Amino acid sequence: MANIVLMPKLGLTMKKGRITGWLKNEGDRVEQGEPLLEVMTEKVNVRVESPFTGVLYKILCPAGSTLPVSVPVAVIADEGDDEASLEAAVSEALAALQEALAGGGKEEERKKEARPVKPFVVFAGERKVSPRAARLARKEGVDIGLISGSGPGGRVVEEDVRNYLEQLKGGQSYQVLPIDGMRAVIAERMSASRKQAAHVTIMEEVDVTALRDVREQLNAQDSSGRIKFSYTDLLVKFTAEALTEFPMVNSRSSENEIFLPGSVNIGVAVALENGLVVPNIKNAHQLSLEQISTKVKDLATRARNNELDPEDVENGTFTISNLGMFGAEGFTPIINRPETAILGVGTIRTKPALVDGRLEKRYFMTLSLSFDHRIIDGSLAAEFLSRLKEMLEDPYPWFGLQPQKNEDLLISAGGGKSPRQIRRAYKDGINRLMETAPDVVMGFSALTEGIFFDDGAVSRLNKELIAVALSVYIKCEYCITAHIYKAMELGATPEQILEAANVAVFFGGGAALAYTATLVQDCIEAFGGN
Amino acid sequence: MAPNKEEMLDMYRKMLLIREFEETVANLFSQGQIPGFVHLYVGEEAVAVGVCSNLGDKDYIASTHRGHGHGIARGASVEKMMAEIFGKIDGYCKGKGGSMHIAAVELGFLGANGIVGAGLPLAAGAAFANKYLKNGGVAVCFFGDGASNRATFHEALNLASIWKLPVIFVCENNMYGISMSQERHQNINDIADRAVAYGIPGVSVDGNDVMAVYEAAAEAIKRARAGEGPTLIECKTYRFRGHFEGDACVYRSEEEVNEWKKKCPIQRFGTSLLEMNIASREELDAISAEVKEQIKNAVEFARKSPYPDVSELTTDVYCD
Amino acid sequence: MEMTYSQAINAALREEMKRDDTVYILGEDVGIFGGCFGVTAGLIQEFGPERVLDTPISETAIVGSAVGAAAAGLRPVAEIMFMDFMTVCMDEFFNQAAKMRYMFGGKVKVPLTLRTVCGAGLGAAAQHSQSLEAWFTHMPGVKVVMPSTPADAKGLLVSSIRDDNPVIFIEHKMLYGVTGEVPEGEYTIPLGKADIKREGRDVTVVATSLMVHRALVAAETLAGEGIEVEVVDPRTLVPFDKETLLQSVEKTGRLVIVHEAVKNSGFGAEIAAIVAEEGFDFLDAPVKRVAAPFAPVPFSPPLEAAYVPSEEKIIEAIKSLF
Lengths: 530, 320, 322
What we know:
The structure holds 3 protein chains of 3 kinds.
Chain A: E1 3-6, E2 16-22, E3 29-30, E4 35-40, E5 45-49, E6 54-59, E7 66-68, E8 72-77, H1 83-113, H2 121-124, H3 131-140, H4 158-169, H5 181-196, E9 199-207, H6 209-221, H7 231-245, E10 252-253, E11 258-259, E12 266-268, E13 270-272, E14 275-277, E15 280-281, H8 289-304, H9 310-313, E16 318-322, E17 341-355, E18 358-372, H10 378-393, H11 396-399, H12 419-436, H13 438-452, H14 460-473, H15 477-489, H16 494-506, H17 510-528
Parallel strand pairs in A: 12-16, 16-17
Antiparallel strand pairs in A: 1-8, 2-4, 2-7, 3-6, 4-5, 6-8, 9-18, 10-11, 12-15, 13-14, 17-18
Chain B: H1 5-30, H2 45-52, E1 60-62, H3 68-73, H4 78-85, H5 119-133, E2 139-144, H6 151-162, E3 167-173, E4 176-177, E5 180-181, H7 182-185, E6 202-206, H8 210-225, E7 231-236, H9 254-261, H10 265-275, H11 281-304
Parallel strand pairs in B: 1-2, 2-3, 3-7, 6-7
Antiparallel strand pairs in B: 4-5
Helix pairs in contact in B: 1-2, 1-10, 1-11, 2-8, 4-11, 5-6
Chain C: E1 2-4, H1 5-19, E2 23-27, H2 43-47, E3 52-54, H3 59-71, E4 75-80, H4 90-103, E5 113-118, H5 133-137, E6 143-145, H6 150-162, E7 167-172, E8 179-181, E9 195-198, E10 203-207, H7 210-223, E11 229-233, E12 236-238, H8 242-252, E13 255-262, H9 267-278, E14 288-292, H10 301-307, H11 311-319
């Protein structure tokens, strides 16, 4: 039967790769494990081994193609395949490839349609490229937009292009790494898992403000300062608790059996210099937080010292992979087979959020649950994650603690500024901005004028609210003030203003919202009386 | 010392040639056949001819914006001069100079000059070269009454005086610096008086009397060749036409012009040639006819000559 | 052999006067006095007052007569004591010398060398310290030479005197005492050939006259910080060696121009324009000019020092490109 070679995912962050060369020609015989093609990811050029033995029947994507991961790139013929079945496989693969690529294209089109966001490029400052760098990029046929600039003001200079080219072509940074040892094991297991399990990942944003409070309180209880609970410790604890309620998520599976263990053995992925290892905490559901913490530290230490025993990594039932410390927000972890689910933990970020109609500074973490859809249904996975979220968002009862009063969380309103003061500040600000950065003012005016052009489809108030969102997004204090004022004049309620401000998050302006939250509150307060 | 008959007839011929040349140019200019603008020498022919008839091979002249007469007096070809004024490739300067920059260095003619008074130091320099090379040559600078107020006049006369340069400064006092009459532009009657300031001889002559000019120049040139330094000769004359073609001459009266026309240097010289029995009416008429023919041919030559190719635009900027 | 810039110029004059009888010197106080800066010292004794001529204070007559003499077959070397005084003989140089050949359809040669002195540094203030070279680069028909070293001064002056065109040879008063190795015997340096005074791969600094020395000091300092500066001395601004400039910028990708003249419409603008027109794609950073501010040369010593581009300003400009 014809085998389809997919664009490999060669790193956690890899979304697309460029085929820099085929090491075999069509018609060549190829052994499984024999280098078949070279793929360049963001960082390295990797020789990818053939996952199958056979004859390279058709190369679907020539060298030079940049492709998303997991799309078909070649067809390898098995012995005994006839021409017709091979051609059928090729057309099927091509159709899949085209669909995948078209999907990407649609995504791009959607982005293009989201016009209101686009013009913000103006405010971010135009990308500067030296003529020399541009010439070299033209000559070498590389997209200068992919190259980050190291010159004054972030200008892309020749050296940046050269460095980029060296990365592309090899050059000084060219490295061929053997896929052997631990790497080979990881590679094999990861791709095997990917192939065998029907991966689905769901994500949930969890408000960990309370969890953070609990952790602080617990750590403060130990006056010796010896015990320091990590978020991983807490996550292991609550995940273990949740798993006891959802045994299917704690299951192991083989080709034709689902095994429901009597214990919860939670693996914690430990990053090593040359890979990762997943020792597990046996019977985590029966351990106290202290015991879990001690165990996690012990396993991690031994893992790094290469002192793990085989049983430490065997018989896991669930895995937690915490990439939060590396700044990852959400991701799609690969299930540690034969387990059937894995929890990815993202970094903690602060965001303003509406709590009882008021803005508060809150802490959020994204949890990503990958599960084997063959075993676990989507609804079940969602329920499990929802339960875990519930526990994490209200952890106090588990430890007999009460919420600490934390004034820092509240974003205080008012600020003592009268509407008149704010309006004057707005006027002064605009004048100042006109002097220092007239293009920003003009650009923004042009943009809002575009929005306010009365096409009859969107109400004037809604347009103003959009402008509020955009103002928050660009963190322009004067624009925020002006548009909140106008919106409220048109009858907007404080809730609508806050909703609009929150929309900035949708544009990727969470930080902007945090930055401007106080001002938004002030404005609502100040103009509310009008 | 005095010119013989042949020389005098040649002087007469040159004066007529200048007159015919200039009147033809005026006529062509008014018909729009000559580009730019032209300053004509009509009425002043006696100065150029009287001075230049004394000059030899090694001698230089530097001229003014009103330079056609000087060139012709120095022996330049009227064909090549006319072609230059037409802006044609066969002109003296390949059409790149025009009326105001006609030059024939091969004839010691250092050019007409668009800058009033610029010729004085140039002539001093050429005189210096002759002196330096000890070739016995002199240099003559023609300039107007207007130029006598310029720094170049004073610096050049002073330098020529202290270095005893073989140069003759010939001031063509035609009574006007463009529109400004001499009595308005300087507080002296005789520009020759200024020679005193530089310790050189200064003489004032009737610039419409070619023989008077000739004699004054002869004397000055003799001194110069003898190493006795420069002389300032003021020739009082008058331009019959405007400062340039198209000048309405609002600054002078018709009576004044007519008064001067009665003193026409060519008529005067012709009359005296007849009176002194140096030439017959027939001879003079024959000369006149020849001159007309010559100028007609010059115009023909100029018309037939092509314009310079655009490739000439940037040539001759530097010597290679 | 080691000699000063002043001695090198003197040697060039002496050699050319010996070699060619038509070469003579004229100018204010060039004879018995030996020149305001002593450059022509001893020449009147050697060649006599017929060939080394003191003139009255008559710049117009100096240049005007030199043009006439050049057109009549001599090779005058005129000295204008300070470049600032070129204003009073501009017509003779600009309207006569520069244009004569063209106006006359190529029928005359004006082999005039006009030596003059530029630059601040002596507290000579606004009318005796200017660097006006850009004016002369705007005159078709004139060649503009600006030597920075004794060896260049000698070789370029010999070439200037032998050149059949009017040449303005601009000396810098603060360089007269600078010493340097000068080749033995007769030699010429062609007009229009730049000299790479120091090779470097990271940035091209085009500097003229005194600024060449400051650029070299800056280059030495920056070498210690890992920036290799290529210092290009055009030596002649007209004709200008575009090839060397463009080759250097193609190599380094960065260009800083240093001149003592005011920045506005200085020759640096021309150099920058050449690179913008013909070497745009070579540039990895904007072109920078380091030049005097748009003000007359001040008298007061601290003001004068601040007026002239310093090594520090050159270093700062170079660093801003990285």
